[in-house]
Write a structure and sequence with these properties.
CATH class: Alpha Beta
Order of helices and strands: EEEHEEEEHE
Number of domains: 1
Largest sheet: 4 strands, antiparallel
Number of strands: 8
Distance between the termini: 25 Å
CATH architecture: 2-Layer Sandwich
CATH topology: Alpha-Beta Plaits
Structural class: alpha+beta
Shape: globular
Helix content: 10-25%
Length: about 110
Protein backbone atom coordinates (compact mmCIF):
# COMPACT_ATOMS: atom_id res chain seq x y z
CA UNK A 1 0.00 0.00 0.00
CA UNK A 2 3.01 2.33 -0.12
CA UNK A 3 1.70 3.77 -3.43
CA UNK A 4 -1.42 4.93 -1.65
CA UNK A 5 -1.84 7.56 1.05
CA UNK A 6 -3.54 6.94 4.35
CA UNK A 7 -6.46 9.27 4.99
CA UNK A 8 -10.22 9.54 5.22
CA UNK A 9 -13.19 9.10 2.94
CA UNK A 10 -15.76 11.77 3.74
CA UNK A 11 -19.26 11.24 2.37
CA UNK A 12 -22.18 13.64 2.69
CA UNK A 13 -25.69 12.36 1.95
CA UNK A 14 -28.67 14.68 1.50
CA UNK A 15 -31.97 14.72 -0.42
CA UNK A 16 -31.71 16.68 -3.69
CA UNK A 17 -34.38 19.16 -2.60
CA UNK A 18 -33.01 20.01 0.86
CA UNK A 19 -32.15 23.70 1.04
CA UNK A 20 -30.33 25.92 3.51
CA UNK A 21 -30.07 29.69 3.23
CA UNK A 22 -31.86 29.59 -0.13
CA UNK A 23 -29.46 27.14 -1.77
CA UNK A 24 -29.26 23.36 -2.14
CA UNK A 25 -27.40 21.77 0.77
CA UNK A 26 -25.11 19.81 -1.51
CA UNK A 27 -24.07 23.11 -3.12
CA UNK A 28 -23.00 24.31 0.36
CA UNK A 29 -20.84 21.18 0.70
CA UNK A 30 -19.25 21.59 -2.76
CA UNK A 31 -18.52 25.29 -2.16
CA UNK A 32 -17.04 24.52 1.26
CA UNK A 33 -14.75 21.91 -0.31
CA UNK A 34 -13.59 24.36 -2.97
CA UNK A 35 -12.86 27.00 -0.32
CA UNK A 36 -10.53 24.47 1.35
CA UNK A 37 -8.83 23.54 -1.96
CA UNK A 38 -10.41 20.08 -1.97
CA UNK A 39 -10.90 19.35 -5.63
CA UNK A 40 -11.48 15.64 -6.23
CA UNK A 41 -15.11 14.67 -5.65
CA UNK A 42 -17.59 12.08 -6.83
CA UNK A 43 -21.30 12.89 -6.89
CA UNK A 44 -23.70 9.95 -6.90
CA UNK A 45 -27.45 10.00 -7.31
CA UNK A 46 -28.92 7.16 -5.27
CA UNK A 47 -32.16 5.35 -6.04
CA UNK A 48 -33.50 5.63 -2.51
CA UNK A 49 -32.55 5.92 1.13
CA UNK A 50 -34.13 6.30 4.55
CA UNK A 51 -33.34 9.17 6.90
CA UNK A 52 -32.80 8.99 10.66
CA UNK A 53 -36.57 9.32 11.15
CA UNK A 54 -37.16 6.33 8.84
CA UNK A 55 -38.73 8.49 6.11
CA UNK A 56 -37.98 7.07 2.67
CA UNK A 57 -36.36 9.42 0.16
CA UNK A 58 -36.36 8.37 -3.49
CA UNK A 59 -36.42 9.53 -7.08
CA UNK A 60 -39.84 9.41 -8.70
CA UNK A 61 -40.65 9.27 -12.40
CA UNK A 62 -41.85 12.88 -12.63
CA UNK A 63 -40.03 14.33 -9.63
CA UNK A 64 -36.37 13.81 -8.73
CA UNK A 65 -36.44 16.40 -5.91
CA UNK A 66 -36.36 13.83 -3.09
CA UNK A 67 -33.59 11.71 -4.64
CA UNK A 68 -30.69 11.09 -2.23
CA UNK A 69 -27.41 12.67 -3.36
CA UNK A 70 -23.98 11.51 -2.15
CA UNK A 71 -20.84 13.61 -2.35
CA UNK A 72 -17.69 11.54 -1.77
CA UNK A 73 -14.23 12.94 -1.05
CA UNK A 74 -10.88 11.38 -0.02
CA UNK A 75 -8.19 13.37 1.80
CA UNK A 76 -5.67 13.34 4.64
CA UNK A 77 -6.87 13.31 8.25
CA UNK A 78 -6.17 16.98 8.99
CA UNK A 79 -8.04 18.19 5.91
CA UNK A 80 -10.95 15.81 6.68
CA UNK A 81 -11.30 17.27 10.18
CA UNK A 82 -11.24 20.83 8.80
CA UNK A 83 -13.75 19.94 6.06
CA UNK A 84 -16.28 18.32 8.39
CA UNK A 85 -15.96 21.23 10.86
CA UNK A 86 -16.41 23.79 8.06
CA UNK A 87 -19.55 22.06 6.73
CA UNK A 88 -20.90 21.88 10.27
CA UNK A 89 -20.27 25.63 10.67
CA UNK A 90 -22.56 26.36 7.70
CA UNK A 91 -25.47 25.01 9.73
CA UNK A 92 -26.65 23.03 6.70
CA UNK A 93 -28.47 19.81 7.74
CA UNK A 94 -26.56 16.93 6.12
CA UNK A 95 -25.65 13.33 7.05
CA UNK A 96 -21.90 12.65 7.12
CA UNK A 97 -19.78 9.49 7.05
CA UNK A 98 -16.05 9.74 7.73
CA UNK A 99 -13.94 6.56 7.62
CA UNK A 100 -10.26 5.66 7.31
CA UNK A 101 -9.12 4.64 3.80
CA UNK A 102 -6.08 4.32 1.59
CA UNK A 103 -6.35 6.45 -1.54
CA UNK A 104 -4.38 7.79 -4.48
CA UNK A 105 -4.11 7.99 -8.24
CA UNK A 106 -2.64 4.84 -9.80
CA UNK A 107 -0.77 4.93 -13.10
CA UNK A 108 -0.98 8.71 -13.40
CA UNK A 109 -0.04 10.10 -16.79
CA UNK A 110 2.57 12.85 -16.79
CA UNK A 111 1.65 16.04 -18.62
Amino acid sequence: MNRLKSGYEVIFIVPESRRHGGKRVYDWVVETAKSLDIGRMTKRSDVEGAGEDGKLHSAHFFDLADQPIELMYAMDEEKAECFVAAVEETGAPVFCICRPVYFGQLNAKNG
